[in-house]
Amino acid sequence: MAPAGRVEILSAQELGRTLNRLASQVLESVDDSHSLLLLGIPTRGVVLAEVLAAKLQALCGHPVDQGSLDPTFHRDDLQRVATRLAAPTQLPAALEGRELVLVDDVIFTGRTVRAAMEALQAWGRPRRVRLLAMVDRGHRELPIQPDFCGRVVPTSRQETIALCLQAIDGEEGVFLLKTGA
Asked: What's the total number of domains in the chain?
């Protein structure tokens, strides 16, 4: 039984199928899978990038580089949003000439992705940068759209989306959380 105010959007099984589809789409979008580099945006995007890297390895037969990129200090809305301690950016390889995929759990206003794009400039110039989001919940404030998207879930501003992953939460799925419910 789900807690009050929590609606299942994707079950663990559906999440698994969606992750397989996203991994296939990413692989089909590049000419050379060795050039792929997944960078997760903390916090859930980092674990999501790890999961996707494992799925990509199973598909292409070799490890896929993955790391993390923390855009906290590049945000333009720090006064309005709750912040967390910045996590160190971890790049497993140089960005030059790479097919880079930014990985985030939920895209909302687009401000986190904008900050991540700004942060990337300090680290090099990839051949191409794409965005993968597990859930697009709408309410964009900037013209940023994911290239790969697991599910579009229109929400109200009083609702949030939670991606639960086994490594962090002990369960898997995507849930809509209704505040005040």
From this structure: 1
